[in-house]
Amino acid sequence: MDKEKKYQHGPEYDKISSKKYVKISTKTIKVLVISLITLIVTVLAYWNIPISDSENNSKEKYTDKTPINTSELVYDSDKKIIYLKSDASKFSGYFEGESFFCGNDGVCTMSGNAIEGKFDGEIRYWYNDLPRSIGTYDNGERVGYHKYWYIESTQIWYEINFNSDGQIHGSYKRWYEDGKLSNESYYIDGDEISEKCWDENGNVRKC
Fold first, then answer.
1. Which end of the chain is more exposed for a tag (fewer CB within 10 A), N or C?
2. Which domain holds residue 128?
3. How many angstroms separate the CA atoms of 27 and 37, rounded?
4. pLDDT band at 102, cuts 50/70/90?
5. pTM to 2 decimals?
């Protein structure tokens, strides 16, 4: 018993304890370094400070919170790219003003962001000062939740969701103008899994 106690508190035991201590300390240091790097990146992003010198002018325009009026832009519907009228370069930044898309006689306005000429972030549309649609874009593709209203009405027309590849994914709902649900579907990566439909009286109908 005495030998066992001596061994547990002898040089060999202390040596093992020292190794364990060093191992724990190294792991702790790594965690602290990673936390410090994360903090620095977060602060730089918050203050819009470039992390590297490789960021181009278009990226700097995007971080400028002052919107440019759409009258200074032109939209190429074939390429789906927004250009500056002044120098024909791909626009990056915030914009607001008359909508690029308006098939009606009313006043169509819009606001949103673009990177390298492509819609990026939240895009909003209005018709005669009433909301027409709202949705998120990533590199020109619709992603996430999108919502549409009937023209000159506060009634929702339909709600739809998209995955990161721009495919319909999740719930899709459509309403009649009086607010009654018209149909409800569920999609997975662009494929319709289920669908239910109702008539204007709320009765189940064939889709």
1. N
2. 57-205
3. 16
4. confident
5. 0.66
